[in-house]
From TrEMBL, chain A:
UniProt xrefs under PANTHER family: INNER MEMBRANE PEPTIDE TRANSPORTER, PEPTIDE TRANSPORTER CSTA
Protein name, UniProt field: Carbon starvation protein
Compartments in which it is found: Cell membrane
Transmembrane region(s): 6-22, 63-81, 87-110, 131-157, 163-181, 193-212, 224-245, 252-270, 290-310, 330-354, 395-413, 434-453, 465-488, 495-514, 526-544
Record Pfam families: CstA
Organism from which the protein derives: Desmospora profundinema
Domain CstA N-terminal: 5-348, 355-511
From TrEMBL, chain B:
Domain of life of the organism encoding this protein: Bacteria
Protein name from the UniProt record: DNA helicase
Pfam name, any one: DUF7990
Originating organism: Desmospora profundinema
Amino acid sequence: MSEPVLLTLGALALFFLGYRFYSKYLAERVYRLDPDFRTPAHEFRDGVDHLPTNKFVLWGHHFSSVAGAAPIVGPAIAVIWGWGPALLWVVLGTIFFAGMHDLGTLWASVRNKGKSVGVITNTVIGARAKGLFLLIIFFLLLMVNAVFAVVIANLFTNFPSSVIPYWLQIPVAMTIGYLVYKRGMGLLGPSLVGLFLLFVFIFIGASNPVAMPETVLGIPSAGFWVIVMLLYGAIASRLPVWLLLQPRDYINSHMLFLGLGVMYLGLLFTQPEFNAPFFNSAVPEGTPPLIPLLFVTIACGAISGFHGLVSSGTSSKQLNKETDARFVGYFGAMGEGLLALIAIMATAAGFATIDNWSQHYGSWATASAGGVGAFVTGAGNFIASLGIPPEVGTTFISIMIVAFAATTLDTSMRLQRFILGEIGEQYKVAPLKNINVATVVAFLSCVALAFLADPSNPGQGGMKLWPLFGTTNQLTAGLSLIVITLMLWKWGRNYLVSLIPLVFVVVMTTWSMVHNIMGYISQGNTLLTIVGILILSLNVWLILEGILAWRRGRDEPLHPGTSA
Amino acid sequence: MERTADRAREIWEQFKHFYEEMYFAPYRRTMLKEIQNEEDVFKLLAFSEMLGLPNPVSYYTMELTPFMLEEFHEWHQRMGMEKSPLDGFKCC
């Protein structure tokens, strides 16, 4: 058996042990999940927000909400430092950080009447935090849009075979939505036909690549695709949810499960050898230091604040029994770890030669922009060993990522519109409360960021933002960890399980932010410097508030109304 | 043999239920909120005269009111009002 296969099996075994023993310890000894505790789903059952849901359905929902393009993009970039550090962070991060964080936020929310981490934090920190939170969430969504638009644009440019299947997926999804909601048809038939059609489109796309000219309207083709995707996101976000977002999200979940299965099977059959070094001691010039940047580059896939938002936003309100939190939260995080693990294997062992690998990882800029391309090529090579032509395999993988990123784009533009409406409400800016104005503002701000963050490379600004995106994401995780730690400490439980990850995440995030800002200042990039300083300020403010809340908590109850 | 067929049917039904739930569960809240909003607008139209707004089709909406009793009751409770807020329309 080859080294990558052995290591993958070892990592899977560690995931299994983590779930079997560590999550059991957390569930029984730390969080003390109680099967008789009346969960918010039962206590506030209204059939809308609160509804007891089967744990397998909830896991599927939770997993497909948190798994997206991000656990692929991060590891695919991080392999530039070698596969060893990335693999270690993904495996240990999933077991001791992500699983604990997701399970913990679910538990914290369930024990606080199903409130979200943001609301619970507001009770700890105070009402004045609301405006700042809205702004930081707005920035996070802005970065998500700019980053994912670039990811899609680069995939369209590097894998032109993915253009046709991607655009044809839209009418297929819309037809499924129409048949299910307007014609009242059962789901199984239309979605199986839809999935079949998608595979037909993948074959068509593989033999009919749509390559754009090098420049379109005076801008590079990738930049042109960025504008197209952001325009698409703005329009899609205005369509009813049932028409496009819901059915496409659903097709994506099929592709996610299928893709994961096929990639792991492919790895097993290929028996590849590593082309990337274990530890890259000769990183290209301009590559930021491994510590602390690794820990914000791989955000999703090891620990992610976004998971806390999903856990405490929707999953906690639907948890049937408190003990289900172990399966939904911990195992949900593990699903994303699986995606990050195969992303490392595909980028570190999916190439034919070390020269092929070096082409992708020749500089920090190519690793950032082309990391996803490296993943698609590597995973396509794995799939080829199953007898599927490489061009079909790469098209399938690129479509999987493009569809994820586009769904995220659609959702986050929608959320950005809501947030803008709330900012308009908070700061009395009436026009922002108008849906169309908010959509245009969201679109223009994304375009501005994509084109102004890196003026030398029009449209590619999004990838410059990846470390900032990772930092903001980890910052949100830090927020959840503060809440969990304070609750555990107050209730006399072993709070070290969350305090250690909290300190680690906060130190690495702050360190990375300072490093990034110094870099932006030396490059003279005002926009990124301002955004960076804003996020750093929030980070420092968060640490201070955490300390204040700890000091306050010694004398008074942490959350009124909660019981241990 | 029959028991095996029953068991297979049961598993198939469970699978179909799981499959459909996976589709609807993530968006259930959004859909129900939208339905509630639409129904609230309809209620506003149907009860507009009781709020002092002239209604050109009151002849028809009056006929609808007995059928809306339960929904109206659910609505005012959802809005945090224990008793009906309309003088002429006592549902509880």
